[in-house]
Write a structure and sequence with these properties.
By secondary structure, the protein is an all-alpha fold. It has helices at about 1-25, 45-50, 60-85, 90-95, 105-140, 140-145. It has one domain: Four Helix Bundle (Hemerythrin (Met), subunit A) (Up-down Bundle). Helix content is about 70%, strand content about 0%.
Length: about 150
C-alpha cells in the first residue's frame, strides 16, 4: 500500500506544480512546452488518474476528482487565451518569453480566472487527501483487491 500512497502523493505534487505554472505564466515568466495547457487526460496528474489511478475508480473519493480536474483545465485554457490569443503570438514566441507584451488589463482578467482555478485546485487537493485517508483506513488486503 505504501507504493500506492507514494504514487498518489506524486500525482498530487504534479497537480500543484501545474497550478504553479499557471501563476507563473500570468506574471510573464516564460513557460515550457510541457506547461502549455493540454487536455486533462494528458497532464502528469491526468496520466496517473486515467491510467493506474483507475484501479481506485470504485471509490467515491476518487470519483469526486474527475469533474473538478476537467474544470481546472478549462480555466487554465481560458487564462492562456486571455494572455496570448489576443496578441496572436506564434506558439514559439509564447514559449521563449514574448509574454512581456501582455497588457495589464489582460493580466488582471487572468488573475481573476486564476483565483477560480485556485478554488478548484483546493477542491481537488481536498479530494486527494480524502482518497489517501480512505486508502489508509481500508488496510493492505482491501486495497490489494483494487489492484
Amino acid at each position: 500500500m505504501r507504493e500506492i500512497i507514494q504514487k498518489l502523493r506524486k500525482a498530487k505534487m504534479s497537480h500543484k506544480r501545474w497550478v504553479g505554472h499557471a501563476s507563473a505564466m500570468i506574471e510573464g515568466i516564460p513557460i515550457e512546452k510541457d506547461q502549455v495547457p493540454i487536455n486533462y487526460t494528458d497532464c502528469d496528474f491526468g496520466n496517473w488518474y486515467y491510467d493506474e489511478g483507475q484501479n481506485l475508480s470504485s471509490l467515491d473519493e476518487f470519483k469526486e476528482i474527475e469533474d473538478p480536474h476537467k474544470e481546472l483545465h478549462n480555466i487554465y485554457m481560458k487564462i492562456f487565451k486571455i494572455l496570448f490569443e489576443q496578441k496572436k503570438l506564434s506558439f514559439f514566441s509564447k514559449l521563449i518569453g514574448k509574454s512581456a507584451t501582455i497588457s495589464e488589463q489582460n493580466k488582471q482578467l487572468a488573475r481573476a480566472k486564476f483565483r477560480t482555478l485556485e478554488e478548484v485546485s483546493r477542491q481537488i487537493l481536498k479530494s486527494l487527501d480524502a482518497l489517501e485517508l480512505k486508502l489508509k483506513q481500508m488496510g493492505e488486503e482491501e486495497v490489494a483487491k483494487l489492484f
